[in-house]
Design a protein that fits this description.
Number of helices: 13
Low-confidence stretches: none
Distance between the termini: 23 Å
Largest sheet: 7 strands, mixed
Strand content: 15-25%
CATH architecture of the largest domain: 3-Layer(aba) Sandwich
CATH class of the largest domain: Alpha Beta
Number of domains: 2
Helix content: 40-55%
Number of strands: 14
CATH topology of the largest domain: Aspartate Aminotransferase, domain 2
Mean pLDDT: 97
Order of helices and strands: HHEHEHEHEHEEEEEHEEHHEEHHHEH
Shape: globular
């Protein structure tokens, strides 16, 4: 049996090699390395796929978050609410701009931001909430949208881990993750569900005015070359990466189905193991399983990780330290009581999850986890 990887990008590449190589070769032959045709084609394809009118590629997902803050004209001292059980990108981008990240707790079942905790954190300085669609399913968008409307706040969606996930509103409407708030952000980091072979990201919006500002911001604040109307940054999606993403976009639905099938098999096998809680899928969202993340509730997570490693199975802890307890933020926020975030940091463990996993590989992983708990 081939060695098991957390993410198997090499096998996926070989499966799509002919189309990817042809797309990259076309860019090289045309020498359109910056803002070439492949960028526009990918943006248009993603716009159609996600049913959102404006999509602009950018350098990476963190840049996308910074661009969102800039386009919304947030100023130093403004407060931005972010979940503490999360990667640092949104809080880091906010802090770099002189904004104040305000950390709130998450739901213990979905791991996404808790609207009640968010509302308790709102002050007169609050200007925006960042809804992180963690691990592959949507945050509680209807509640967050109502909350933002009530308090006149902007809503930014960090969709780095949830491209293609769909949210179900109480009136029966469905919308894709990243297309519901004022601005949505995407990451195309290689391990993402739609990943390139380097860095890449995108911003999404339905607002034409915001779309114009975002497009200018990513290119030094200019619409016309050498005429800089606002302060921007240099954050363009590389044409070679756009060409790769254009090929992979055609396979996104099959990628998602493969991940969902793996997750279903995992959960069926683990659902009756005492002390192990499989991922909970929200009734309001589909789950695209960027990660398959379990909770070890008996205090034996490290022992399980060590056992998996001994058996040749990789695993990861996303995330071991809540953001409010990170050294860079702890001096200001370390006294916060965010019990769910802290608990999850002690309990979560993620198993291999990717589109190229074989039945034999998954069976071995499942058997090994069962062996650990049952002997």
């Amino acid at each position: 049996m081939k060695s098991i990887q957390m993410v198997d990008l090499a096998t996926q590449y070989h499966r799509l090699k002919a189309d990817i190589d042809a797309a990259m070769n076309e860019v090289i032959v045309r020498s359109q390395f910056i803002q070439g045709d492949a960028v526009r084609e990918f943006e248009q394809g993603l716009s159609k796929k996600l049913e959102v009118p404006f999509v602009w590629g950018c350098g990476n997902g963190t840049d996308a978050l910074q661009m969102a803050f800039m386009a919304l004209d947030l100023n130093p001292g403004d407060e931005v609410i972010v979940p503490s059980f999360n990667y640092i990108a949104a809080a880091e981008a906010a802090a770099l701009m002189g904004l104040h990240p305000v950390f709130v707790d998450v739901d213990e079942h979905t791991f996404c931001i808790d609207p009640v905790s968010a509302e308790h954190a709102i002050t007169t300085k609050t200007k925006a909430i960042v809804a992180v669609h963690l691990f592959g399913q949507c945050a509680p968008m209807e509640q967050l949208m109502n909350l933002c409307k009530k308090h006149q706040l902007f809503l930014i969606e960090d969709t780095a881990q949830a491209i293609g996930a769909q949210y179900l509103f109480s009136d029966g409407r469905t919308m894709y993750a990243g297309t519901m708030g004022d601005v949505g952000t995407l990451s195309f980091f290689p391990s993402k569900n739609l990943g390139c072979y380097g860095d890449g990201g995108a911003v999404l919006t339905r607002n034409e005015g915001l779309a114009e500002r975002l497009k200018m911001i990513r290119n030094h604040g200019q619409k016309v070359k050498y005429t800089h109307e606002i302060i921007g940054i240099n954050s363009r999606l590389d044409t070679l990466q756009a060409a790769i993403l254009g090929v992979k976009l055609n396979h996104l639905d099959s990628f998602t189905r493969a991940r969902q099938d793996l997750a279903k098999a995992y959960s069926e096998a683990f659902s009756k193991i005492s002390g192990l809680i499989p991922p909970v899928i929200s009734a309001q969202s589909t789950h695209v399983f960027h990660q398959y993340t379990l909770r070890c509730t008996a205090g034996n997570r490290q022992a399980l990780a060590d056992f998996l490693k001994l058996k040749g199975i990789p695993c990861m802890i996303y995330y071991p330290i809540a953001l409010h307890l990170q050294p860079v933020f702890a001096a200001v926020h370390g006294n916060l009581s965010l019990p769910i975030s802290s608990q999850l940091c002690d309990e979560v463990i993620s198993l291999p999850m990717h589109t190229e996993m074989t039945a034999d590989q998954q069976e071995y992983i499942i058997h090994t986890v069962q062996e650990f708990f049952h002997g």
